[in-house]
Amino acid sequence: MGHLTTHVLDIAKGQPGQGITIEVFRVEAGRREHLGEAVTNVDGRCDTPILEGDTFIPGEYELVFHVGDYLRVQGVESAEPRFLDVIPLRFGVADADEHYHVPLLLSPYGYSTYRGS
């Protein structure tokens, strides 16, 4: 059975991104449906899959990473408003029987993502 997982890596500090709130939405016809949220643990991962079972179906999704507070705690100085505060990642799921791993590689002034497994 497929599922959705994520994690956050702070590539500027070379450490997991702990304590980051992540919201998950399903997107249909331009409307976002809030499905839940999680907070990253000491390994920068969520304790359970973000979505699995009947809630994980083919379609378009959005993970929203609330990184501003994490960057403040890490001592990253920034003018207000911060360059990065909330990062939305929108992606498609074609086969809900597969594992979709969508990590966030974060630095104070940039980020990237990819589909892992």
How would you sum up this structure, described in words?
The chain has 117 residues and is mostly beta strands. The chain has one domain (3-113): Immunoglobulin-like. The chain is 5% helix and 46% strand. The chain contains 1 helix and 11 strands. The protein has one helix at residues 68-73; strands at 3-5, 8-10, 15-16, 21-28, 31-39, 51-52, 59-66, 86-93, 99-101, 104-107, 110-113. The chain has a 4-stranded mixed sheet, with no helix packed on it. A hairpin with a 2-residue loop joins strand 10 (104-107) and strand 11. The longest helix is centred in the middle third of the chain and has 6 residues, at 68-73. It is globular, with a radius of gyration of 14 Å. Keywords: Hydrolase, Purine metabolism. Residues 4-116 form the Transthyretin/hydroxyisourate hydrolase domain. It catalyses: 5-hydroxyisourate + H2O = 5-hydroxy-2-oxo-4-ureido-2,5-dihydro-1H-imidazole-5-carboxylate + H(+).
Write the layout of secondary structure elements.
Elements: E1 3-5, E2 8-10, E3 15-16, E4 21-28, E5 31-39, E6 51-52, E7 59-66, H1 68-73, E8 86-93, E9 99-101, E10 104-107, E11 110-113
Parallel strand pairs: 1-9, 2-10
Antiparallel strand pairs: 1-6, 2-3, 4-5, 4-7, 7-8, 10-11
